[in-house]
Amino acid sequence: MDRHIDFGNIKVIPGQNGGRFPFCNTILIDDSIPAVIDPGAGLQQLQAVNQQKDIEIVINSHVHFDHICYNYVFDHSKIMVNEREAIYFQDRRKFIADSGVYEALGEEWANLWLQRIQEPDGPQTSYTPAYRHEWHLSLARLDETYCWGDVIDFGHSKMEIIPAPGHSPGFSVMYFPQEGIVYCSDIDLTKFGPWCQNSAQYIESARRVARLDADTFITGHESGIVSKDEFISRLDQYLDVIFIRDKMLLANLGSAVTFEELVRKGTFYGPKIFKDEFVYCWEWSMTKEHLQRLISQGLAAVENGKYICS
Fold it and tell me: How many of the other CB atoms lie within 10 Å of CB of 208?
């Protein structure tokens, strides 16, 4: 998809590289109040939108790089995010704390990150946008917040904010009931599977989204546009990745291991790309989340500072 895909007032701007991270599919609402949701499709596409349309509102479904990275392009638009994640614009340290950075990488790395993202041409990592200057630019301003359950009226189209925690604390799905369209952002059906801060919440949210009365589901990555039947049929396989990872993690508990040893096994991303410290942090966070749930289910335990199967 290299052009806008039109559903009347609702248009999809396909992300670069097939919408793969660190890009995402962006929604353009071409209405009396023009708006953009998740400006991560790519710099040139979004600069063109900003030149052609008087975009009044930019809405972030959540505060992850690929969904906020080109906020700054819309310098005359109102930037909005869920009230539960507004603190991340006000205090970047809170964002990296909630992302596990302080625990996984330490305060020195966190301070380096805060410094590096201020540098337009600073050194970058190999696999992720860890030090991209867009972090600094696009977290610099927040004008208004929305709440779960809010309805935003753009003139002809109305959008309901659907609560969908699990991917991030304020993760939100955008529902257009009149058009029968859902923008489900990072409930994205990719082969990689869900990225969860709370996998139990994520599963519950995904199931709730699948029950929405809509014919068209637009994902934030890769798949792009699928019918409701396809979304439902692929959702089980997508969510099953969570349980496959559980089994992989439990297999790595065949002998007692420390948390650090377990992270270094690379259950989720593989250890080969840990030279990118952001990837290591993601591995650390996912390992912690899965372990906590496995312990709560009685499938894993901690003895003398080491993790074992129960």
Answer: 13
Domain end: 220, 240, 260, which one? Answer: 240
Residue with tokens 């939100």: 172
Q: Which amino acid is at 116?
A: R
Instruction: For tokens 């946008």, name the residue.
Output: 129
Number of H helices, E strands in the chain: 12, 15
* Residues ≥6 apart with Cβ < 8 Å to 303: 256
Query: In terms of residue numbers, what domain contains 257?
Result: 249-309
CATH code, 21? 3.60.15.10
For residue 152, list its beta bridge partners.
159
Indicate the SS3 state at residue 251. Answer: helix
Laid out side by side, the sheet with 172-176 consists of 151-153, 158-163, 172-176, 181-185, 216-219, 225-227
**pLDDT per residue as tens digits for the range 190-240:** 999 999 999 999 999 999 999 999 999 999 999 889 999 999 999 999 999
In this structure, the answer to whether residues 220 and 159 fall within a common structural domain is yes
- Its pTM surpasses 0.85: yes
- Same-domain pairing of 187 and 265: no
Name the average pLDDT for the chain. Answer: 95
Same domain, 167 and 302: no
> Do 168 and 211 lie in a common domain?
yes
The CA distance from 167 to 80, in Å, is: 18
